Amino acid sequence: MSDAKDSGAGAKGGGDDAPLGSGGELHQQATGDCPLMTTNQGTAISDDQNSLRANPRGPTLLEDFVLREKIMHFDHERIPERIVHARGSAAHGYFELTDSLAQFTTAKILTEVGQRTPLFTRISTVAGGAGSVDTPRDVRGFAVKFYTKEGNWDLVSNNIPVFFIQDAMKFPDLVHAVKMEPDRGFPQAASAHDTFWDFISLMPESMHMIMWQMSDRTLPRSLRMIEGFGVHSFRLINADGESTFVKFHWRPKLGLQSTLWDEAVKIAGADPDFHRRDLFEAIGNGAFPEWEFGVQLFSEQDAEAFPFDHLDATKLIPEELVPLRIIGRMVLDRWPDNFFAETEQVAFCPANVVPGIDFSNDPLLQGRLFSYLDTQLSRLGSPNFHQIPVNAPQCPFASYQRDGHMQRDRPKGRVSYEPNTLDPDGPRESEQAGFRSATTPESGVKGRIRAQSFGDHYSQARQFYRSQSAPEQTHLVAALVFELSKVETLRIREAIVGHLRNIDESLASRVAAGLAIDPLPAAPLPFQPVQDFDPSPAVALIGKMKDTLEGRVVGILVNDGSDGAAVSALRNAATKAGAMVKIVAPKVGGAKLGGGAKEPADGQLEGTPSVMFDAVAVLLSDDGAAELARDAKALDFVRDAFAHLKAIAVDQGGQALLQAAGVQPDAGVVAATNVADFIAAAKTRQWDREGKVRVLP
Ligand code: HDE
Fold it and tell me: Structural domain boundaries of the chain?
């Protein structure tokens, strides 16, 4: 066999001594239309297919600078992933102010109505690595970098308004506990294991957050359907130097929606990038994700009257107590050009604020103000990470900071210090325009002290649980049973049930029954008596689902012979209601519908299970149905749609498939001719069905 044949795509052909060049017709050579490929030093490359060898079958030469540079760069392509929030998706967009807060702050972004401020938003899971799936049960990070006229303001939030711990000192422990266990390297992106629940069992302050984490909030249907919360109290400072406390909120235009746990698990297999793809497709289709921006404003005196301490990040301020004031909106309208350059390299930091915005004394926030700047040094490797385009302010910025790794600026002149007289045009501080902290008097005893006012760990957890609808309470119980069933150590399971008793006895009994724990373990003595607050409807989720198909996806399962007119009617109605419609067929090339037309498929049945959709229609001819009744994938398609409480439209063939799958139709199974009923049913879940398809805890 000749060398030429051995050398594959890069060979030009010829005998043993023929030169082996750059790949003949398979590889495009530069023409006038495309730029020359060069090394990073700008030297044009003649052959990007073959390394330089001493002879055609000889050793590779060290002098091959083209190969060495290419491999060296490749070897260093990765940077350390984020310690938490490693998996994320991001987009560019803008913020538009609709209601001025001039009475409370000097920050222009919050006072200039109608102004659009560019921004970059990254939404993330917390526990998993960068390559983990999109749909674990997990909190979502919601970080927004506003490129304001007065500097970058980073609002680094979560989709849950409270946090696990009160003091930054415990953050490394929390994260170590939830991440993969260090000896075995699993589980990935999951809190359902011993170390997490061991830690939680010893941290009663985490109970409120645990209620949120075990609720459906941590199983979002789409990143476009989550809320965002700044969690901590911040301060606004006005022109007179007066300060007002503020909590920041994001509200999705599409309303809230979550998946069921079984659905989330199956999505993870069917499409590990489910949320990233959804965001990408929505922006690509011009359905720009949008959120309202709201604030809760309150004074020091208001805060003193609250039956909790607002500086404690395990507490929220019920909206019924301090109503939300909507002051603007965020629209995400542009996908990044390059994932690494932007989504990976973006560096958020809660300490990035602009004049008119300031911090509170929340000890968790205070720790965060240090952590983020510090982590960027190891992640991005240089104190000049602010020069990376996605991190750079979009307003003028200047200082006498100099040098450092990867310095891209070329400051002129001999002066790099201040004060100076030699650079009269150089940057100078401004008491008027510069950032100033609130002038708050501080007094008290120095020490490692947890304030007494942080001692109520169960009252808001109880309020959260009791504010949920019946299906939501059931899901919360099921989540706790699931998670604790993965915990091998009986002590831990029992300790958690003990804590639950302080929240709600029936919650504890249901979880104990689900774990076969009998009798109920003793409840730990609360540090402070548990209070009964009024329910807060704002914390429940199902009530915040919007009566719309906008942003939702309807799947239509067809086969050869399906009724083309029925497919069109359903597609038109669902599209008109705002949904995206996708055709699923056994073959990706599509199906020949009755009436002759070939309908191309958006997804092949094997790779497009019904978990990809919010509602489905099954439109089949008798022959088509008979064929699919022998196909486990088709049977799973309808079984899962039914078990996941989705609306299903069927014709006669569809009904036959349902029957073959053992599905007993109910009110959510609608005749395909009843298009309006199907659209109405598709806008919600069939909650009444749940007890019939699942043994509820
Ligand atoms: Fe973070 N957090 N965090 N966090 N956090 C990070 O910063 C940290 C906390 C949040 O899309 C890290 O750049 C400490 C609360 C988001 O890039 C790190 C404490 C909230 C993101 C860090 C907290 C958040 C992070 C890891 C307790 C909601 C992703 C990489 C004192 C308000 C941002 C990085 C992105 C990321 C530290 C608690 C939100 C290690 C020490 C509370 C959305 O610096």
Answer: 65-387, 455-543, 549-693
pLDDT score of 2 more than 80: no
Q: How far is the CA of 674 from the centre of ligand 1 (A)?
A: 49
CATH of 549-693, one of 3.40.50.300, 3.40.50.720, 3.40.50.880, 3.30.450.20: 3.40.50.880
User: Per-residue DSSP letters for 144-167?
Assistant: EEEEETTEEEEEEEESSSS-S-SS
- What pLDDT shows up at residue 25? 60
To the query of whether residue 391 is one of the catalytic residues in this protein, the response is no
**For helices 261-270 and 274-284, angle between their N-to-C axes, nearest 10 degrees:** 80
The reply to whether the predicted model has a pTM over 0.90 is yes
Q: Is the pLDDT of residue 362 over 60?
A: yes
Question: Could you tell me the distance, in angstroms and rounded to a whole number, from the CA of residue 369 to the centre of ligand 1?
Answer: 10
Q: For residue 84, give the ligand 1 atom closest to its CA.
A: 26
Give the residue from 257, 117, 222, 73 showing the smallest Cα distance to 685.
257
Per-residue model confidence (pLDDT) at position 28: 78
For the Cβ of 438 lying below 6 angstroms from any atom of ligand 1, the answer is no
- CB count within 10 Å of CB 509 equals 17
In the three-class reduction of DSSP (H, G, I as helix; E, B as strand; rest coil), residue 350 is classed as coil
Ramachandran area for residue 42 (φ above 0: left; ψ -120 to 50: alpha; else beta) = left
